[in-house]
Design a protein that fits this description.
The structure holds three protein chains of three kinds. Chain A is of the alpha/beta class. Chain A has nine helices and eight strands. Chain A has one domain: Thiamin diphosphate (ThDP)-binding fold, Pyr/PP domains (Rossmann fold, 3-Layer(aba) Sandwich). Chain A has an eight-stranded mixed β-sheet with strand order 2-1-3-4-6-5-8-7, with helices on both faces. The N and C termini of chain A lie far apart (72 Å). The relative contact order of chain B is 0.16. Chain C is of the alpha/beta class. In chain C, strand 17, helix 15 and strand 18 form a beta-alpha-beta unit. Classes of the chains: A alpha/beta, B mainly alpha, C alpha/beta. The interface between A and C is large, with 53 and 68 residues.
């Protein structure tokens, strides 16, 4: 444990947890991600009512109700749109978005591209378990092409989605990967992501104990801190991410795009505009 | 970032206050973690294991209160002095993996024992490395406390029959709720 | 031929293609006329080309306000005949009409010469070429001004206002072309309108889409997200420049799914929000509208209806989205549906719709349509209306606040992020009074009851419909058909027929008691609407008690509903 004495922190992680008990399977990586969220928020010391957590549909998307922040559990794939509307209308709030690999990269794929382009100050955490867990085990965009399922016998044969590469190409300003089992590490990434202005994308590899246990229980031995320092050079980041083994952890790209936050020009009353129509 | 889980290296402690803050934080985290596991088991209708984890949570809570008492004025407001919440897990934090909704008492207690052992080694290492004799003494005390926990868990384990094969078999397939 | 009991109106259509500038000329004519004190109504038709296509500008002028197309055109001025066949059905002409054409345009199409209209040939293109930089559309404007006794100066002033700032040199050429056209106007008698003189204070020139945006702004909208779609895009573009001046912002979304979710997010954060779309976009939004109903988030979705189904005819109007607006959501998902009754009424209805959404914490779908949205009217400045709009908020921080409490009114306090102790998770999952997901019968039924109750118990007030006149015969309609029907009813009354007009501005939730009161004493009712399957008529049959004799009259787009057709139906209906 890090022992920098730093008195005066207003909140502890427990302040961000609601009384609702998670229904995730015991052994699910999402339990750890929830703790990472709590610890990150405690480190940031935001009052819980100033934080909004927006999600879509899927196991990972259940997370808002397990926190003591404002939450919105929306429809499948549209969490980034909900969050964009909220943050543009309420720039004073801290807005976190939680999704999974299906919700975020399949039905939500289009909104992902444009959220990266738009670079609104949001933090997007995708709990990637390479499966559609909630609907009992179909391949997701990040599933390996040869993984056998009922709906795709023998595997999809499709090239898996590379969310970090797509994020970089679409303009995301902060790109990181974590592993759910490293709770402190993920918490640190989330803190960094929130503190970095603009659209911050954190992929957290979060093993599915029910549908992918055999393949994913070994993830803890495969993840490793990236051996190169983080970069702010998109082309260097592109080369690295295209050859990434999928288990490099840490901040992999940190840009310096100015965040997009449209602001009103003035605060007139609407009758001010009548002259447009008056003859 | 370190390779997945906890770093087992002892931190550098510059004062007794820091030491107690550290120790308290470990116990708070252990209490919360066992509580979470008990919740998970309750939600999944494994009452037996839920009860075991509740008991562990209670023990850690008592230990936490004891440390708070010993720390006394050395700590501010009975809360852990702030440090970064984003550091690695403490030695007693159970990995959220390694649990299973059908886990048996033997497996649950083995998991707990593993963590208590880690805590023993952790405080022994602090005791060995501490320059301040007060810290060394307090750390040795903590290590002794944790050793008692190990003994207690071992006694419990002795009363439990070995696991039967097929303990993790569930005739029902997974269901979806959304 | 029906004579409107109000002052005579004059209908002119200007057609041309290939960049002749018909649209701009039509606007200039309207501006000139309105500066002389006339009221006006203008619509446009175009071919599918983005530029250079055939176009028609239809202008109706009167000394009293008009917000409907007339039954026929008094004058058609064709700059050329290219692809004019496309508009054949939209150009009712007869032997009392006048067609002005250019001999250089070639042989007049049969559908024009067969009308029996008088024909005046003017070599417009030759005249235009005679002026350096002269445009044929300016020559045409001069001809029209002379024919209807509009001072050329009014036209020239309107031209100056339209193009003067951009191209001062073109101004001189335009002026010359206008005067040349005026002097070449055929000497044919055309019904004249007395010119009242410059209008007194308080008239507006506005389109339905602009009025929608302005009404929403007055209603308090602070956030808009939208995706371009014909014929709704103008709402988004108007809001894009107007909203930031009034403390709001607009975001162009990547699709309609993003639009509806963005406005829900903003509304969840406390900002009254709006999006505007058309039928295909509304279809995409349906799932998320259900989320707004279930999680009780106020939003306004304006559907500027066009001919359907599917891609349909984007530039033509129809009233065929009633079914999806009322019934489209899966599950039992009651919500509010409104419909403006005229171009000018888009302002009041939009403002009222925002008020309803915020008060009832529910989505409102406002069914405007292309015939309103893209039509321009000159009207008296509408009266200011104020609604006491207030979104119910928790009284005290952390006051054991149950977001979805089963209150008597059905409306429960909505905490806004930032409000301490009010934290809750909005959810599409069925939930209990605290918002926690629940599959319990009592919670499902309780919340269904609550959401139904909040609509049933609400007093929608007088705005729910416009009801006019008395009689055993009634005309029952909704939305954009109301204006042509108003004129038809006026003509019927002038001819001695007693007929009541009931035009619904509130489609859902139904108001059985109010309609029963309105139909008291009515024995026969004509239900008139612009769609193929009689959606409104079937909706009324399903949810309301109607008199014994119901005559459904439903006709789909793309042609506009004209007062004369409706008048004929009323006459028919009056025959006992």
């Amino acid at each position: 444990m890090n022992m920098i004495p730093n008195v005066g922190k207003a909140f502890v992680p427990a302040d961000y947890k609601s009384a609702v008990k998670p229904v995730w399977c015991p052994g699910c990586g999402d339990h750890s991600v929830l703790i990472s969220f709590q610890r990150a928020l405690a480190e940031l010391a935001f009052p819980p009512e100033q934080v909004a957590i927006i999600s879509g549909i899927g196991c990972s998307s259940r997370i808002p109700a397990y926190t003591n922040c404002y939450g919105f559990h929306g429809v499948h794939g549209r969490s980034l749109a909900l969050a964009t509307g909220l943050k543009v209308a309420r720039p004073d709030l801290t807005v976190l978005v939680a999704s999974g690999d299906g919700d975020g990269f399949s039905i939500g794929g289009n909104h992902f591209l444009h959220a990266c382009r738009r670079n609104i100050d949001l933090t997007y955490v995708v709990m990637d378990n390479r499966i559609y867990g909630m609907t009992k085990g179909q391949p997701s965009p990040t599933t390996e092409p040869d993984w056998d399922t009922a709906i795709a016998p023998g595997g999809t044969g499709l090239s898996p989605f590379h969310p970090l590469v797509i994020a970089l190409a679409s303009g995301a300003n902060f790109i990181a990967r974590g592993f759910a089992g490293d709770i402190g590490g993920c918490a640190k990434l989330i803190v960094d992501a929130v503190r970095t202005p603009g659209f911050s994308f954190v992929q957290i590899l979060s093993p599915c104990v029910t549908f992918r246990d055999d393949q994913q229980k070994g993830w803890k031995n495969l993840v490793h801190a990236a051996i190169v320092p983080e970069t702010d050079d998109p082309s260097r980041a592109a080369r690295r991410l295209m050859t990434d083994d999928g288990f490099n952890t840490g901040v992999l790209y940190r840009g310096n795009r100015k965040p997009y936050q449209p602001m009103p020009l003035a605060h007139h009353t609407p009758s001010h505009l009548e002259t447009e129509f008056a003859i | 970032m370190t390779n997945s889980r906890q770093s087992n290296e002892p931190p550098r402690l510059n004062s007794v206050a820091e030491f107690f803050a550290q120790a308290l934080a470990i116990e708070v985290e252990a209490t919360e973690r066992y509580g979470l596991l008990a919740d998970q088991m309750e939600v999944h209708n494994n009452k037996e294991i839920a009860a075991i984890f509740r008991k562990m949570a209670l023990i850690e809570a008592e230990h936490r209160n004891e440390i708070a008492r010993r720390a006394g004025d050395a700590l501010v407001a009975g809360r852990p002095a702030s440090f970064s919440w984003t550091g690695p897990d403490g030695p007693e934090a159970i990995d959220c993996e390694g649990v299973h909704y059908l886990m048996t008492p033997r497996r649950a207690l083995t998991l707990a024992r593993f963590n208590e052992e880690r805590a023993v080694k952790y405080f022994e290492a602090i005791a060995a490395a501490a320059i301040d004799p007060q810290i060394a003494a307090f750390a040795a005390d903590m290590a002794a406390d944790e050793r008692n926990h190990v003994v207690w868990v071992d006694q419990w384990l002795e009363q439990i029959a070995p696991d039967e094969p097929g303990w993790d078999e569930d005739p029902d397939p997974p269901v979806h709720s959304e | 031929m029906m004579k409107s009991p109000s002052e005579a109106s004059l209908s002119i259509v200007l057609t041309g293609s290939g960049g002749a500038g018909v649209m701009t000329a039509g606007q200039i004519l309207l501006d000139a006329a309105t500066n002389c004190g006339l009221y006006g109504f203008m619509t446009r038709s175009t071919g599918p080309q983005i530029r250079g296509g055939e176009a028609a500008a239809m202008i109706r002028l009167s000394s009293k306000p008009v917000q409907s197309p007339g039954d026929r055109f008094d004058i058609l001025l064709a700059l050329d005949f290219e692809n004019l066949q496309r508009f054949a059905d939209e150009l009712p002409l007869d032997s009392a009409s006048l067609i002005i054409a250019d001999p250089a345009a070639g042989e007049m199409p049969g559908f024009l010469s067969n009308t029996g209209a008088a024909i005046g040939l003017v070599p417009m293109s030759k005249l235009a070429k005679g002026v350096k930089g002269g445009r044929i559309a300016m020559v045409a404007l001069g001809i029209l001004a002379r024919l209807i006794c509009l001072p050329e100066a009014a036209i020239i002033a309107a031209v100056a206002a339209s193009i003067g700032r951009k191209k001062p040199e073109a101004l001189a050429a335009s002026e010359a072309a206008v005067l040349l056209g005026a002097s070449a106007a055929p000497d044919v008698a055309v019904p004249k309108l007395p010119l009242p003189g410059a209008p007194e204070q308080g008239r507006w020139s506005i389109t339905g889409n602009e009025a929608t945006g302005f009404g929403a702004l007055k209603g308090g909208v602070k956030f808009v997200a939208g995706y371009p779609i014909t014929p709704a895009t103008e709402i988004l573009e108007w809001m894009a420049h107007a909203l930031p001046k009034c403390g709001g912002v607009l975001v162009q979304a990547e699709d309609e799914l993003a639009s509806i979710n963005m406005i829900m997010g903003a509304s969840y954060g406390g900002a009254p929000s709006l999006t505007a779309t058309a039928g295909p976009g509304l279809s995409l939004m349906i799932e998320s509208l259900g989320l707004a109903v279930a999680s009780e988030i106020p939003v306004l979705v304006v559907d500027v209806m066009r001919s359907g189904p599917s891609t349909g005819i984007a530039t033509k109007s129809e009233q065929s989205d009633l079914n999806i607006a009322v019934y489209g959501l899966h599950g039992d998902a009651p919500h509010v549906v409104t419909a403006p009754l005229s171009v000018g009424d888009c302002l009041l209805t939009a403002q009222w719709s925002v008020h309803l959404a915020e008060t009832l914490q529910t989505p409102v779908i406002m069914l405007s349509d292309q015939s309103l949205g893209q039509a321009r009217v000159v009207i008296d400045r509408p009266e200011d209306v104020a609604f006491p709009t207030k979104r119910l908020a928790p009284e005290a921080p952390g006051a054991g606040n149950e977001r979805y409490a089963a209150t008597e009114s059905g409306i429960s306090p909505m905490a806004i992020p930032g409000f301490p102790g009010g934290q809750y998770t909005a959810d599409g999952l069925t939930h209990n009074t605290r918002g926690t997901p629940s599959s319990q019968a009592k919670d499902h039924v309780g919340q269904l009851d609550k959401r139904q109750r909040k609509l049933d118990a609400f007093d929608f007030g007088a705005h729910w419909a416009e009801i006019d006149g008395e009689g055993e015969l009634a005309v029952l309609t909704w939305g954009s058909t109301s204006e042509p029907l108003r004129e038809a009813v006026a003509a019927a009354r002038a001819g001695g027929i007693k007929v009541k007009l009931i035009a619904l501005r509130l489609i859902a939730p139904t108001q059985p008691a109010l309609l029963a009161a309105a139909l008291e004493g009515v024995k026969r009712v004509l239900v008139i609407e612009q769609n193929h399957t009689g959606q409104f008529w079937r909706y009324l049959r399903a949810h309301y008690d109607l008199p014994n004799e119901v005559i459904p009259i439903h006709c789909p787009g793309p042609l506009p509903i004209r007062p004369g057709e409706a008048f004929a139906h009323i006459q028919e209906g009056a025959r006992a």
